[in-house]
Amino acid sequence: MTVRGFAFIQHPSLMFEQEVKTLYNSILSDKNCSVNLKIQVLKNLQTYLQEEDTRMQQADRDWKKVAKQEDLKEMGDISSGMSSSIMQLYLKQVLEAFFHTQVSSILFSVCHT
């Protein structure tokens, strides 16, 4: 699952594929699924958002350098739109998984160490 996460960071459009949506949503919503697997999917999504934020910040810095010459703002808007669309695909299941007692406890301990 970790390798898939890295692939999705490099090629975010893969997260729109039906097979991937079904996989991630079933892992996050299945109450009998391994907690570690749920956590890995959540980490994959978190890492994707962090990487996308880093890319957008760099694009913004680059845009500011040439803002008067070209209108590069649209490129950032497209990228932002994709990450928003991806997260909307998984939002319900992410919220449900986050409120799972074991997942919340483990994520809290991981984030605060």
Automatic annotation (TrEMBL):
GO cellular component: Scc2-Scc4 cohesin loading complex
Signal peptide: none
GO MF annotations in UniProt: chromatin binding; cohesin loader activity
Family annotation (InterPro entries): Scc2/Nipped-B
Example GO biological process: embryonic viscerocranium morphogenesis
Protein name, per record: Uncharacterized protein
Gene source species: Patagioenas fasciata monilis
Lineage: Eukaryota, Metazoa, Chordata, Craniata, Vertebrata
